[in-house]
Structure formats: C-alpha cells, structure tokens
Amino acid sequence: MAQAVEGVARELVAVPVLLPLFAAGLKLAIGGRSRRLQALISVVTLTAVLVVSVLLLAAADGGGPLATHLGGWAAPVGIALVADRLSSLMLVVSSAVTLCVMVYSLAQAYADQEYAAPLAIFHPAYLIMVAGVSDAFLSGDLFNLFVAFEMLLSGSYVLLTFGGTESRIRAGATYVVIGLASSLLFLVGIAVSYGATGTVSMAQLAERFQMLPDYLKLLVELTLLLVFVVKAAIFPMSAWLPDSYPTAPAPATALFAGLLTKVGIYSVIRLEALLFPGGPVSVLLMWAALLTMLVGIFGAVAQTDIKRMLSFTLVSHIGYMVFGVGLSTAAGMSGAVFYVVHHITVQTSLFLVTGLIERRAGTTSLDDLGGLMRLAPVIAVLFFVPAMNLAGIPPMSGFLGKLNLVQAGIAAGGALPLILVAGGLVTSLLTLYAMSTAWSKAFWRAPAPGAADRPGTVLESEETTLTRAPGTEGITGREIVTSATMPAPMLGATTALVVLGLSYTVLAGPLSALTSRTAAELLAREPYISAVLGSAR
C-alpha cells in the first residue's frame, strides 16, 4: 500500500510545472473572448497545483524524496524533477501565494473594467512564471534549473512592463539587462561544471565535485553563487531591485517580492547544502548577509514611499536567510528555511495591502497620506499585522524566525556569527521603526496639509464614484480609479495571506519540526542523491 501511494505521488511530481503551462497555452488560445472562462481556468489551475503540492509535501515528509525522470529516460541521462522536503514546502507556500494573488488581480481587473488585455496576456504570462517557479524548486538538473529561470523571467518581463508606461519600460530595461547578464553567467557556470565533471545532474555533481581540485571546485562554486546572488538580490548585487519592483502593477509587485528572490535563495541553499557542503564560501556568505541586512534596512528607513520602503526591507530581510545558510549548521539551515516560508507570505501580503492603499488614496507617498485609520480601518489592520510580523514582534512568526537564527548564531560561536546576531537585532529594530513610521504617517496622523487640493486623494468620501489618481496605473497602465469601497475578492485574498502569515505562529511547533527535518535531509545529501540516481550510481 505504501509503495502504491509513493508511486502515485511520484507521478504527480511534474504536475506543478506542466499544468500551469498547459493552462497558459489554453488561455492564449481562448484569448479575450470569455472573461469568466479565463478566470475559472486560472483559479482551478492554481488550486489544483496547491492540492498537488500539499500531497507531495506529505509524501516527501513521510517517505523521503520523490524523483521522476522526464521523457522516460533513466538517470542520469533524463531530466530529473525531485520533490524532497525543501522543494515541496516551497511549492506549498508559493502555490498558496500565487492563488491569492491571482484572485486579487482578477478582482482588480474586473473592478477597473480591464477585461480583454489582462486576461489575454497578463494571466498567461503569470501562469508561465508560476510554472517556472515550480520547475526551479523541483529541478534536479543544473541545465533544467537554467531553463526554469528563463521561463519565470520571461513571464516576469511581461508582467513588469505590462501597459507600456514610461516608468515600467525604464524599470523593465534594467531588469531585463540584469536578468540576461546573470543568465549568461549561469550558462558559463554550467559549461564549466559539465566540462569538469561530464554531467549536469545535481545528484551526480554532488559526488563528482568532491573529486575536483580545490581551486576548480571553488571557481565553479563562486561562478554559480554569483548567479544566484544576483537572482536573490543579495548585496552588493541588490541595487536593481528597489528601482524595478515598485513600478509594476500591485499583483505583479507582490508576486515578485514574495517569490522571485526566494527562488534565488532556494538555489543558494541547494548549491551550498548539496553541491558544496562545508566550503570556505560560508564566511563570504555571512559577510554578505550582514551587509545585505544593514544596507537594505538603512535604505528602507530613508524612503518616503511605501513601495520603495518595502522593496528595501525585502532586500534587507533576504540577509536573514543568507545568515542561516552561511552558518552551515543544521540549526542555521532550519532557521533559514523557516524564515523563507515566513517572508514569502508576509512580504507578499504587505505589497497587496499597499495596492489597496494606492487604490483607496491614489498614492503611496507617505508625504501625501494621512487619516486612513478612520477612512479605511480594515486596510489599516491588514497593513499593521504583517508589518509587525515583518518587524518581529513576539509571538509572531517573524520573531520566531529571527529567534531561531539568533540561537543558531550563538550556538555556532565565533566572532563573525556573533556579529551577525548583533546585525540581525539592529535590522529588526530598524524594521520596526520603518514600519511603525509608515503606519503612523499613512493611517494614524491627520491628513497631510494641502492633500485636499491634490486630485485623486480621498479624504472624506464614502462613495465609490471618485476621481482618477494621477501617476498611478492599473494592470494595463491605465490610471486607477480611487474608491472608498474595495472589491471583496481583493480584500479577501489579502486577508487570506495575512491570516496565513499569522497561522505560522499557531503552527510554529510543527513547522519548526518540519524545517528541522528539512535541514537534516539537506545536510545528509544521501537521500536526495539516492532518490535521483537509484541503481544508476
């Protein structure tokens, strides 16, 4: 019976990749002719991916990694997709997030009467990006990981520049250049890896890298690490992010912030745990973590726009994840995985709430906001809860994640881990300051002087027939119509993510136990290698 269940689960490993691709093709074929059918396809597809991801996590946690080989080619020739605890957990969280963001974007398009273009182009690109994210998490092949990155990046290029406004095209140009440069470097790393080992299978690379001369192994590790550092926006390769993400539509920005950088972090974890365990690069990663935390949060404190502030906090809190990876211990790796799960959910929910603020008030500039606590109390609560969670207020998951990393740093001993602990505490306090200041200015204080004279700023109206907000664009780049009444699905999707973030506190015990098992499996390496190669070793 157990073998039958495992066999069924193994057949499902490719579904999170193939199903969104099939749905994207179907939606492109349908075009903009049936809005309801388009919406139904998207929601059903992402719901199915979420269900399959939960099943894969249950199977991988109970019976070890599940591997399938595409095209019927046995390892190591065939392209392997592997669902272990780490990849399955990432799939579950990303699937929940992408489903909520999809509901949000559908509601926004409906409310703004943007029927044809978003459904005919925006959402197929969205599904392609989802397929790329799933493929990156599941990939057991270095070249297929490159293909996954290209897939998700091609979708993100469309989402970032959709509508063709000047700000989006300008930000998109930077994003595309950075993406293409890192992809070219990735190809170089793959070529060097293949030339040195004769394979691109990660399971085989894990064995063969250990037989290489130290200088060659370090060269390959640094090349691949640099690629993932750029993808994850780790300092000093993080300057592109705050200038790119805030210009995209609210759903796209939320998805980028929650997922795309985490794919880079996931790749760093897989690289350091599976391919190059215990290498000298861990010291470099710890310094990078410290600088990422501090530079990012100092940038956040200096911002006067909520979107840019959140973009800098995104960079800053990536440092916590790199902190855990750099420690190269089971406790550090467990803390990093816990924090990735927490941050995907919380950061996405904050950007969705920011979209609601922009829709309600016509701006995200803190200089122009004020009085929203009285006018939009639900939005005020929806922003406050994940903001405090991000800052690490006890007993929320942000606090628990930071506590795990602090304990791991102290247990590791040495000067550098303790410096990282101090940097993490400073970053947490400054995050609290930045988030509290933003909430106070936007919601608590009286409306900014002269706000009544600015078109699109809502002060007193409780009606839905309000003015357009200059300088703000919907999905297609059209100006958003500010409204005192939010579409229920937009509020519902945002609330669901906020509640999911809070649930990590309630489920902290089981989640911490799962991340501990995940870290142990990652550092053991043998379960992953055996699942992929089997009798081919």
TrEMBL record:
Residues 139-428 form the NADH:quinone oxidoreductase/Mrp antiporter transmembrane domain. It is a multi-pass membrane protein. InterPro entries: CPA3_Na-H_Antiporter_D (IPR050586), NADH_UbQ_OxRdtase (IPR003918), ND/Mrp_TM (IPR001750). It is found in: Cell membrane; Membrane. The keyword Acetylation does not apply. It holds the Pfam family Proton_antipo_M. The chain crosses the membrane at residues 12-30, 37-60, 86-107, 119-137, 143-162, 174-195, 215-235, 247-269, 281-302, 309-330, 408-435. Keywords: Cell membrane, Membrane, Transmembrane, Transmembrane helix. The keyword Transmembrane helix applies. Belongs to the CPA3 antiporters (TC 2.A.63) subunit D family. This is Na+/H+ antiporter subunit D. It comes from Streptosporangium jomthongense. The lineage of its organism: Bacteria, Bacillati, Actinomycetota, Actinomycetes, Streptosporangiales.
